[in-house]
Specification:
Layout lengths: L4 H19 L7 E5 L5 H9 L4 E4 L2 H7 L8 E4 L8 H7 L2 E5 L2 H14 L3 E7 L12 H11 L5 E8 L11 H11 L9 E4 L5 H6 L4 E4 L1 H4 L4
Parallel strand pairs: 1-2, 1-8, 2-3, 3-4, 4-5, 5-6, 6-7
Length: 225
């Protein structure tokens, strides 16, 4: 069954607008990241035609094949778990890395960014649900890690990223997003740029709680097979 990507993008943007209206926010504050893992180049190009210009990839091996094939001026976000030995490849390809969760990884990104002649924009991944199977720094360690990462010369720390646990109703994710927002608000102003939280099942609640980036896959590209 074919997926009408343009229709889906329009619907997601309308849902973003309604969530912003409820929260008294401007929809232009929200960066819609289309999660394009397992999505082929042709469908990414359809999303670009529908007005998407931010894409999120989870796997370096997949992204290194696809990104050079996309010639439109779009922004790439690395949103999967990043192993230190993959930083060499990831840093030149991606404008943002959302999943920094320890100082050693940040230091490696800093070295690779220096070699690439760039300032790497990063977010710290916080395990807001404290789930043992998930990556991310525990909430109580997030601010001290942020303080250390902010001192790296070739890394630009811009905020936090987090995922709520899988819940039956989106409203049940609210306490987790609220906790991450409270942490975010304690960052120094220079590092308080983006709060990446919310996916297909819960992004409206995330926006109501202060998200500036939402990561949407299924609602744009359809269910993955």
């Amino acid at each position: 069954m074919s997926v009408d990507i343009a229709h889906n993008v329009a619907e997601v943007r309308e849902r973003i607008a309604r969530a912003c209206a409820r929260a008294g926010r401007n929809p232009e504050e929200i960066i819609l990241i289309a999660v394009s893992k397992t999505v082929d180049v042709a469908r990414i190009e359809q999303a670009i035609l529908a007005g998407i210009n931010h894409f999120g990839e989870n796997y370096y091996q997949e992204a290194r094949e696809k990104i050079p094939a996309i010639h439109a001026p779009v922004h790439w976000h690395f949103i999967g778990h990043l192993q230190k030995n993959k930083a060499r490849g990831v840093v030149p390809l991606f404008e943002w890395i959302h999943t920094v969760d320890d100082l050693e990884l940040a230091q490696e990104i800093d070295r690779r960014a220096q070699a690439a002649g760039k300032q790497q924009r990063v977010l710290i991944e916080v395990n807001i649900a404290r789930e043992p199977q998930k990556y991310g720094v525990p909430p109580e360690e997030a601010l001290s890690l942020a303080e250390r990462i902010a001192q790296l010369p070739n890394v630009r720390l811009e905020g936090f990223m987090g995922m709520a646990p899988i819940v039956e109703q989106a409203e049940q994710a609210r306490p987790y997003f609220a906790e991450l927002r409270r942490l975010f608000e304690q960052l120094p102003r220079a590092n308080r740029v983006h709060l990446s939280m919310g996916m297909t099942q819960d992004f409206e609640v995330a926006i109501e709680e202060g998200a500036t980036m939402v990561r949407i896959g299924t609602a744009i590209f359809g269910a993955r097979v």
